[in-house]
Every structure is written in C-alpha cells, then in structure tokens.
Amino acid sequence: MTVDYELVGRQLDALIGDESDMLAISVNFVALLYTEIPDINWLGIYVLRNDELVLGPFQGLPACVHIPLGRGVCGTAAETAQPLRVDDVHAFAGHIACDPASRSELVVPLISRGRVFAVLDIDSPDASRFSGEDQEGVEELCRIFVRLLESTGQSLDEFI
Ligand code: SME
C-alpha cells in the first residue's frame, strides 16, 4: 500500500503549522506518521545528546533508551548524517533489536544548520517494507518537521 506523502505533508502543516511548543509538535508529528504509514510496528525520535541518542517521542512498544553514536542503524545514520534503509535488519551488523518482531528499518537524520540533532526511526515487521519512494517521502516530511521546529525561533540545541 502506498502513502500519499504530499497529503501527509499538508496534514502536518495543518496540524502543527502554527504551534510553538517543540514537544507538542514532535509528539503530533510522530502520531501522524505512525497513523498514516501502514505495516509498521514502531516509529519515533531519538535525540542526540552528548554523543549518544536518547529515546524521545514514539509510538509502539517500549524501546531501548540509550544508543551510542555509531552503534546500530540509528547510531550509524546519526554519525554519518545519511538516511539508512535496511531491508533485513538481521543482515545489518550491529543492529540493535529493541523489538524482535522488526525486520526492516528506515532511519532519517534530522538536520538543522548542518548539525544532526536527532533521528527519526521507523521499524516494520515486514522485510523490505520501505521503498525508495517511501524514503524520499519520509525525508520530505522530516524536512517539513525541521522547518516547523525552526520556525518556533527556539534553539534546536535544547530540542526536547
Ligand atoms: N533498531 C534500532 C534501535 C532502535 S529500535 O528499533 C526502536 C537500531 O538498530 O538502531
């Protein structure tokens, strides 16, 4: 099933376009994406703090709280500042299995003023769940999300 990412982008703007609380923006961003993207079992934000990722707003089962930079899919995407789409997490050396049901994963670094301040992590119980089109769509939603956070005028160094 495909997702109309442009429509979700407009929903995002309508839902949180004039909100100034970064926590409220973030939890609604996560809730909207979790609702609109089918066949996933976890979606959330890990925030970069002192060279490690710390669990932020998410939907799904309780997850690991601390991920060192460079470890797992999330830590690797944060360290390289590049999105990572993993068709089979069992084949990814160093994958951190928070939920053994997860089979494929998409991680997009959230970047403001050239600095990674968090990552968005999406897990699916299906192998190869995420296509190139999904990756592009989610990357665009992340850019909208970052713009909404920046438009609050607050520093992302103190992001939630
Ligand atoms: N699988 C991730 C860890 C986070 S959980 O999936 C929620 C990783 O390897 O970084």
3D structure, described in words:
With 160 residues, this protein is of the alpha+beta class. It contains 4 helices and 6 strands; from the N terminus they run ααβββαβββα. It has helices spanning 5-16, 22-36, 72-80, 132-150; strands at residues 42-49, 52-60, 66-68, 84-86, 104-112, 115-124. The chain has a 6-stranded antiparallel beta sheet with strand order 3-2-1-6-5-4, sandwiched between helices. Helix 1 (5-16) packs antiparallel against helix 2 (22-36). The chain starts with a helix and ends in a 10-residue tail after the last helix. 36% of the residues are buried. Methionine sulfoxide (SME) binds next to helix 3 and strand 6.
Chain-wise SSE layout:
Layout (H helix, E strand, L loop, with lengths): L4 H12 L5 H15 L5 E8 L2 E9 L5 E3 L3 H9 L3 E3 L17 E9 L2 E10 L7 H19 L10
Antiparallel strand pairs: 1-2, 1-6, 2-3, 4-5, 5-6
Bound molecules: methionine sulfoxide.
Helix content: 25-40%
Largest sheet: 6 strands, antiparallel
Number of strands: 6
- Structural class per helix/strand content? alpha+beta
Task: Pick out its properties.
globular; single chain; alpha+beta; binds methionine sulfoxide; 160 residues
Write a short abstract of this structure:
The chain is 34% helix and 26% strand.
